[in-house]
Please model this.
Amino acid sequence: MSATATIYLLTAAAVFGIGVYGLLQARQILRQLLAINLMGGAIFLLLITLGGGAEGPPDPVPQAMVLTGIVIAVSATAFALALLVKLQDATGSSDLDPPDAE
Amino acid sequence: MNFGWQALPLYVVLISVVTAMLIFALGEGRQHVRTTLNLGGAILKLALIMLMLLAIQSGASFEFRMSLLPGLDLVLHADRLTMLFATLSAMLWLITTVYAIGYLEQSPNRARFFGFFSLCVAATMGVASAGNLFTFFIFYELLTLATWPLVVHRGTPEAFAAGRLYLAYTLVGGVLVLIGLIWLHALAGGSDFIVGGSLAPLAAGNENALRTIFVLLMLGFGVKAALLPLHSWLPRAMVAPAPVSALLHAVAVVKAGAFGLVRLVQDVFGFDLAASLGLADVLAWLAAATVIYGSVLALRQSDLKRRLAYSTVSQVSYIALGVATGGMLATVGGLVHLVHQGLTKITLFFCAGNYAEGLGVHSIEELDGLGQRMPVTSVCFTLGAFGMIGIPPLAGFVTKWYLGAGAVAAGAPWIIAVIVASTLLNAAYFLPLVHRLWFRPLPEAMAERALAIRGGRMQALVGPTVVVAAMALLAGLFAGTPGSPLFWVIRMVGGES
Amino acid sequence: MPSELLIGLIFLPLLGACLTVLPWRWSTRLGVFAGLVSLPVLLVALTLAVIREGAWYYSLGGWTAPLGIRLFVDPLALLMLWMVAIIGGVAAAHAWHDFRPGTPEGARFWPLWLLLTAAMNALFLSADLFNLYVCLELVTLAAIPLIAMAGTATSIRAAMRYLLLALLASLVYLLGVALLYNATGTLDLYLMTQTLAASDGPATSLAFALIAVGLLLKGAVFPLHVWLPNAHASAPGPVSAVLSALVVKTAVYLVYRLWLWTLPAEDPMQGAVELFAVLGAAALIYGGILALLQERLKLVIAYSTVAQLGYLLLVLPLASVTAWQAASYQLLSHGLAKAAMFLAAANILHAVGSDRLADLERLDQRTPLSLFALALGGVSIMGLPPSGGFLAKWLLLEAAWQEGRWLLLFVLVLGSLLAAGYVFRILAAALRRADPTEAEDAEGTSPIGRRQAGYALLLALLALLAGFGAAPILEVIDAGAPAGWSAP
Model:
């Protein structure tokens, strides 16, 4: 495995870690959503890196997967944001567990 | 699968299911249509059973078979034991329906009541005609489901408490049967009921497995048959209306349990195998203990219906006792008690219902002098009580005679002691009631209380009471003539073993 | 011909979804018709084909694996497709009243519903791990707005929680897929087996573990079930029915596919089936106890789903024909019974205005038909005869007995007693009489009430009939048993 690939892999691991930390630590939905997106980015990076291959042309399948994955991630995020707005409208709060619920 | 003439047992079951569905669909109003349906269904069912009886006399046989799972069939057939139980239940159901229509005339939720009432009898018919243990179990559980709404019918907290207890006992009992059944299935496959049992070839090497299976099934059926440690739901279920008590005690539930025990000993294990594994003795001891214990507890009840309930606990175990003693005479005694106890106990419950509806009488102290106020009911009650005690020549005596003779023949004289003790106890808890009815003065207050049942309602309640009392009387008086329950049972046992 | 059937099963609901987005009233009707009514017709043809020819593959667009995406149909997939068609169809008929075409509610509801149907059909037919990821996301993204459609704060909050956990679950699943692709060079569920047998390593084990966690989270398997009860209980009735009967089953279905088809028999990750069984047992007990403690009807039913999913995982270590039959039959009868119960609960909620058990007295007079459906569904859930649930329980017990798994046997029995406890608790609450006045029958007298109750009753009766019609169904199912589970 080339040095660049190693760097990419380590970066992916780090970004994934930051995402997990953010998800566990964040109280606000928006932050949790961002954390999930970070984790998604890390996985896409991992896929591209693993599909890169040491020699020869890169494997097209991971590229297709990542493209599809990005489309899904974007739409899921958009939907989550829309739902968040509805939640804000309905409850006046953008937290999942407001300190004094109901 | 065969849906023709052969499948008659299926149609006997389905008649009541269809009746139930129609009654549910009709709803609360339209009382006359409901009554017509109820009686029509009951009469049609009885007619079909009579038809089957005649056909069997002339050598026909009936069987409906349908594959439910690989290696497991739903089998409904009509052997002699089936016909005994089915005829009894169908007949008593018809009478109980008449009684219930009169009894519940003014009360709410009648559609629900009669719907489940019919479903209950459908399940009982299934239990009677089940051709293997798996089918038996299906209808046995259905019976639990159909009876629960009847037990909680009044909708009061006591009714729901009784319902919970009933479920707790019967569902756990059902689980025991289920485990026993799975085990038996793994060991022997899904074999049909055969007189003498089908397990004898497997016995070598599997003694302990078979013993455990027997105990599991015995306890499972024992719950409904109110065998000793498992009986306490029955007296509590007395909160239900009187026709339900009659159904529980005489027609369906308790009988289904006892019938299960009979099938278990005779047609699954076979008496010889059960005896050689020492299981018949276990059942006999348990039944004997129940006979005595139930009578002792009955003595201590001051509520009329509760006293009758404990009496059932005691009397139903005669059936198991007879079957577990083995030999022709004792078996006859046990099986004929299926009929005798049914007829006699239903008489007593109808009488108790009449007292409660007519004068609001529930406890034993209030029976004083009621022979003057409600003479017909009181005569019936007296007959029933004498029958239970076993005063010759009434039905109870016939049972006890055969049981005693059978005990001697089987070399178990201790059973005679049990029967004598139980008879004395029966007398001790029934004779005081008869004494109160006829020889105590009627209290002033009771003399002035207006009779709440009169006119058509009176006929609807007293009529069935007289009919069942007469049937109980005749079953004993004419026990020796062809056509009597005893005659049947003797032919059955003699013809099959 | 048969391959076009597969395409039709996915494409027609999608086409329907597109039609329902158009602004005309007839387009919604046409869309629903094209997307839902067509399914049983296609399935009859597909069933005949599967009986005739057995399982087969179809490469989409003529592109063969590993580059192309394959569809695969076998008896298990067929069973799931039938459930989507029947349960989804009846639930849609029930939804028709509340989400009429031409109304704003209808305009929002039907595209999502058809999309959900298409996504589930695609999921059950797909043989490609990444395609399955897309399907899983589609199912989630279509199901969650349907939950939020109730519009209450509880439902939106439940939807939000479900969404966050579902996104997380998908990512974990995707990570597993990435590792697996790297190790085996293929995404095809059924081609992967050979490569896996050759290249065994910690990477594939990790991949399967990640995929399992993702799926268990999506399938609300204990202890990852926290999102389910509120989401299922606060959704509109037909949506709850489909969520409990079908959507959570998608994850269980994939667990079956991966562990019983993809993983080679000697792979060390096969040991996970024991863990699944433990989780299933815990779910059965925990869900049952919590269902007993709930004060609201729909929550009782939702926790019952948590418990009943346990049965489906318990089966995994048993590996026999009987266990296979048990799993299939449990999938089917739980789906029917649970959907019936949720539809009935929706009717009751509508008639009474509350689904608190304390407010449900005299239901036998107020909503007799729905109560009857609820009770019939309950009989199947308890596993009492005569019902499909009883046969499923019998098969489960028999399978556990054959393998000598006494502990499992005990858990099964305990689970069914707990189920009896919570079902009868509902029925007792419904038969109470708070005061002696006669209540009017709100349901039987109004044609709409009768019709809505009829849909619940239809599913409940199907669950009951499943108790008698097992022989032909199991005959088809048997042919699809995974390798190692068939008869010796």
